[in-house]
């Protein structure tokens, strides 16, 4: 399937999920993340859930990271440059919703991309090779291209992989893992 078709398919599948299903599946994903070999790392980039889009709820992952005393990094998006600025999450971090209903830090301690060890990535679909389909703006591909080569890229999905995404671009950056409620997929 092509990216446009996959975006439509998975947006529809997500809309059919109840709030209870989203919470149960998100908790299962958070528990499966505990099985990954990532816990010696320090800086974890975590996206904040867009509830209206029925994304994986990352609050459970946030609690795990905080409980393990990890440095949690959250992003602020610039929709003109399609770039993200990363901030360290602290007790003093203030958030506001942007025009796209995304909670973002107002400001704070900026964290360079090269400092980040692990990135949890939102997605709509992915395939058995680790290619992913996001919302189509390219924020994460641009961001990941500026991270260290050894940064660990983990997609989060309620669904199983597609066989193949047919229109992968040379600038698309593949996942290392994708975690679902039932399986940890490795693409290494």
Provide a short characterization of the protein structure.
This protein has 188 residues and is an alpha/beta fold. The chain has one domain (3-186): Rossmann fold (3-Layer(aba) Sandwich), CATH 3.40.50.10420.
CATH-assigned homologous superfamily: NagB/RpiA/CoA transferase-like
General form: globular
Helix content: 10-25%
Overall tally of domains: 1
Query: From the 3D coordinates, which CATH architecture would you assign?
Result: 3-Layer(aba) Sandwich
Structural class computed from helices and strand pairing: alpha/beta
Q: Count every helix, treating DSSP H or I runs of 4 or more residues as helices.
A: 4
Stretches where pLDDT is under 50 for at least 5 consecutive residues are none
Structure report:
It catalyses: (6S)-5-formyl-5,6,7,8-tetrahydrofolate + ATP = (6R)-5,10-methenyltetrahydrofolate + ADP + phosphate. One of its GO terms (molecular function) is 5-formyltetrahydrofolate cyclo-ligase activity. This is 5-formyltetrahydrofolate cyclo-ligase. This protein is of the alpha/beta class and 188 residues long. It has one domain (3-186): NagB/RpiA/CoA transferase-like (Rossmann fold), CATH 3.40.50.10420. It contains four helices and eleven strands. The protein has helices at residues 3-15, 19-33, 59-67, 139-144; strands at 43-45, 71-78, 83-88, 95-97, 103-105, 118-122, 125-126, 132-133, 152-156, 177-179, 184-186. The strands form three sheets. A seven-stranded mixed beta sheet has the order 3-2-1-6-9-10-11. Strands 4-5 form a two-stranded antiparallel ribbon. Strands 7-8 form a two-stranded antiparallel ribbon. The protein starts with a helix and ends with a strand. The model has no long low-confidence stretch (mean pLDDT 95).
